[in-house]
């Protein structure tokens, strides 16, 4: 398998009006992402409300998604769990569904203790049937917020770790420092943090980005422009889409789902995750942001009617 790179959005988990996961809606979102030209997909992650999914829900959605994608694009399974045995089991679920790699967050309870993280990832790797691992380094309270030198040390100690998703601040500097410190111990470093720093990350050698889904088509065009050397176009797309990404930073999956609804891609926007809920003024602000950005969308332009 060649090196993974490019745009790998994290799919949200749609829920039905009754509150259960809507697998059919998830598969439609995957089809849309693939039609947009993404380089791969990720599920489940923090943008999927993964912490709210029951183990049986998670396993069922991963299995259905893997079968449906069927190798059309690479599938990275999210397998994070602070218990290494459970994380390894989730990696194996992904492997059975066709995942080419597994993203596992450095657990927050391990703090800055590199030896504990090495032991954790070594145990995950031992139970993962040879699947390549991606170390997701997220800030507290969700992740351990490791420094770049620690990330590199863990990757060097556990050969199964071939990728890093870096989303601690300052993201760009950390991409540089991880790449320098890890060398060929990892195949690539991806940016995260909702693609809010994607241009800086690409300039520093990031292999790609793993944002939420709602503007995947714009991110595909942005990264494509960067790849062909059109930095001005990449920056134009970044600057035009950034207000939406800042809004999403506050409301997270609820903003993602509302944008997808306004683009005609999601019927129900129910969410299980905690966090702020959009009120009437927030909805008005989102409509204004989408109206400002309307020229970005070559397909599925959003509904900005009051």
Structure description:
The chain has 306 residues and is α/β, with parallel strands linked by helices. The protein has eleven helices and eight strands. An eight-stranded parallel sheet has the order 1-8-7-6-5-4-3-2. The model has no long low-confidence stretch (mean pLDDT 97).
Tell me the layout of helices and strands.
Layout: E1 6-7, H1 23-36, E2 41-43, H2 55-69, E3 75-78, H3 84-96, E4 101-105, H4 114-126, E5 132-137, H5 148-157, E6 161-166, H6 171-182, E7 188-191, H7 198-203, E8 208-209, H8 216-227, H9 231-251, H10 253-262, H11 280-292
Parallel strand pairs: 1-8, 2-3, 3-4, 4-5, 5-6, 6-7, 7-8
CATH topology tier name: TIM Barrel
CATH superfamily: Aldolase class I
Question: What overall form do the CA principal axes indicate?
Answer: globular
- The end-to-end span amounts to 48 Å
Q: Could you give a short description of this structure?
A:
With 306 residues, the chain is an alpha/beta fold. It has one domain (6-230): Aldolase class I (TIM Barrel), CATH 3.20.20.
């Amino acid at each position: 398998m060649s090196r993974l790179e490019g745009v790998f959005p994290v799919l949200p988990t749609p829920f039905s009006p009754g509150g259960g996961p809507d697998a059919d809606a998830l598969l439609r979102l995957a089809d849309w992402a693939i039609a947009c030209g993404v380089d791969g997909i990720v599920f489940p992650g923090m943008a999927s409300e993964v912490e709210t999914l029951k183990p049986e829900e998670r396993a069922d959605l991963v299995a259905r998604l893997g079968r449906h994608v069927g190798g059309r694009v690479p599938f990275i399974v999210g397998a994070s769990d602070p218990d290494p045995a459970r994380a390894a089991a989730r990696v194996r679920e992904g492997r059975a569904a066709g995942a080419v790699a597994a993203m596992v967050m450095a657990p927050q309870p391990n703090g800055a203790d590199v030896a504990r993280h090495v032991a954790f990832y070594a145990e995950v790797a031992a139970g993962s049937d040879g699947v390549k691992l991606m170390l997701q380094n997220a800030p507290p309270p969700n992740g351990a917020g490791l420094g770049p030198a620690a990330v590199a040390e863990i990757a060097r100690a556990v050969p199964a770790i071939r990728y890093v998703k870096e989303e601690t601040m300052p993201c760009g500097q950390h991409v540089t420092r991880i790449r320098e410190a890890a060398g060929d111990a990892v195949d690539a470093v991806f940016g995260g943090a909702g693609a809010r720093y994607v241009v800086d990350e690409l300039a520093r050698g990031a292999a790609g980005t793993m944002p939420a889904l709602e503007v995947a088509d714009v991110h595909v065009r942005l990264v494509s422009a960067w790849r062909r050397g059109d930095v001005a176009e990449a920056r134009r797309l970044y600057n035009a889409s950034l207000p939406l990404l800042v809004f999403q930073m506050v409301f997270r999956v609820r903003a993602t789902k509302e944008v997808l609804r306004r683009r005609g891609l999601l019927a129900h926007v129910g969410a299980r995750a905690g966090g702020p809920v959009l009120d009437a003024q927030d909805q008005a602000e989102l409509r204004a942001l989408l109206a400002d950005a309307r020229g970005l969308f070559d397909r599925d332009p959003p509904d900005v009617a009051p």
